[in-house]
Structure formats: C-alpha cells, structure tokens
C-alpha cells in the first residue's frame, strides 16, 4: 500500500494529511522516539500512536535499543503496548520519528527513514538538520508534545485523560515545569486544556521529578562532591562525572544519571553545566545546560550532537579529560 503525499489538505498541513490518509486506509504506521527516550519523546510517541489507532491505523510504537524504560516513565498510558524494534516491519507504509534531533538519535530505527513508504519527522530541536520526507520541525515549540497536540487536533482526535497524561508529561518535562525560557503564553493554554480533561497533574509531577530510590542520594553526594568550577572558561563552567558502573554500585539503573545535570546547573557562578556519564562501552554521554548566556546547542553540534540553546548533548569516545577539554575549547572559542 502506498500512502500519497498530499498538500496541506488538513489544518495540520502535509504531515496531518499523510497521517489522515494512512489512518483512513488502515495502513501500518510505526512510531518511535529517540534512543533512551525522555518524557517528551515517549509521551509524544504514545499519544500520537493512540490517536492514530483511534482513527483506524495499524500502529506499532517502539523505541530504539536498549528496549528498557526507567520507572519514572514506564507508567505512562500505552507504554505496555510498546514493541521491540526487531518486531517492526522494515518497510511500513509510514514511519514517524518523534523528538529525534538527527537520524543518529533513532539508533537502528534510522533505517526506516528510507525503508518506509513515507517518513514523517516531528521535532522541536534547533539543531535538527532537516530529514525525512515530511517534516514538522519547529524550534520555537517548547516540546514535541505541543506539535503532537496540534496533529491530534488536525486529525480530529479529542483529548481525554489518557492522551492528556502523555502530552502533559512531555510538556512539563521539557519546559522544566514551565520554568524554562521556551515557555510561551500558548504553552499554558495547552496545559490548561490538558488539565481540563481531569488528569492528576500532581501525581504526574511527583513521578517525573520527585521520586527516586534512596541510593540516588548516595550517587548525588559522590558526583556533586567531585564537581569542578572553572569560572574563567567562557561565561563559567561547572562539570562533574559519574558512570553506569557507579550507578550500579549504588543499586541504581544507569538512567538515574540523567538527573545529575539538573542539580549541577544550579551553580550560580557558572553559565554552563556539564555532566559526563560514562557508559559500559567506554563512551561518555555528555549533558550540557546553559543559564542563558551560552548557546550549548552550538557546542554540542560542533562535537557531533545537538539540542537546544539551553539544553543539549553529545556522545564522546575520547577519555574523560580529553572530552572535558573539547568542551572547554568550544566554550573558550
């Protein structure tokens, strides 16, 4: 079955028209967020997957390997219906990439960009280079969940608590509970729509931000204790490191390392916070955050990654000190 590429026949434009045609035809649609999905990637994927099911599409929602979700996200409605990437067809009628700033962020699923009859990319990262057949890429959007809400509206899918829970998780996570500069007036209007469905926003926030195993306190103590402040690098740099092995020593899964940067970024004397997370294969996954004066997306993109002006990241195969030096060089340059 071939899904046509119509023009902007629905309010949501070309992407909504493609998805509408796929649903009407009962076509197979595969959806995926980026590797190691966060609340925005997973919430957006699950919400759009459910919306397309309600419209009649045959939907397979997945994530790139490793096929695991942290406890903070596994409760989202629809997460139980995710299938491993090995279970999706190599040539579905439509493939939808959500919240992935580049093909590389899709892992093994990047092959579907070419294998699918039509590929649709829905993303809000400023560093997105433009890929896929049909693109909904808006760097001004505070979350990919906002773009998915627009698509659901265009498809005539009414928001209920199930959909709103997924969208609100993505929205509140990527706006830092509406604290980040990307928050706009219409961000709060969407939040109001989602709250009006009756979702338990307090429980969502608690699960996302305020729940961690006791071992997290020990890991945080160690990582914070080795933090280094380099006030003369750029507008100020604070950095620290940990590893999946160290997380294991504290009885934690590796994804608990993601929360470290949100603590380190509070350092008043540094505009940029950097947390290096050692992986089992010897690489370093690096998270960068800016308090406003530095475009960390530029830094991350120069080092092979991407993201937003205030939040970005990259992966390094250098050792710890060489990786930190590449960050210093970019900030100083």
How would you sum up this structure, described in words?
This protein has 333 residues and is of the alpha/beta class. The chain has 2 domains: 13-209, Alpha-Beta Complex (inorganic pyrophosphatase (n-terminal core)), CATH 3.90.1640.10; 215-332, Roll (Diaminopimelate Epimerase, Chain A, domain 1). It is 37% helix and 17% strand. The protein contains 13 helices and 11 strands. It has helices spanning 13-24, 39-54, 71-74, 112-115, 144-154, 161-174, 185-195, 201-209, 215-225, 244-249, 260-264, 296-302, 320-332, and strands at residues 28-33, 58-62, 94-98, 118-123, 134-137, 228-230, 237-243, 272-278, 284-290, 306-307, 311-316. A hairpin with a 5-residue loop joins strand 8 (272-278) and strand 9 (284-290). The chain is globular.
Helix/strand-derived category reads alpha/beta
What is the mean pLDDT?
94
DSSP helix fraction: 25-40%
**First CA to last CA: what distance?**
52 Å
The overall strand count is 11
Form type:
globular
The number of helical elements comes to 13
Number of domains: 2
- H/E element order: HEHEHEHEEHHHHHEEHHEEHEEH
Q: What's the CATH class label of the largest domain? A: Alpha Beta
Would you identify the regions where 5 or more consecutive residues have pLDDT less than 50?
1-11
C-alpha-based Rg, rounded? 20 Å
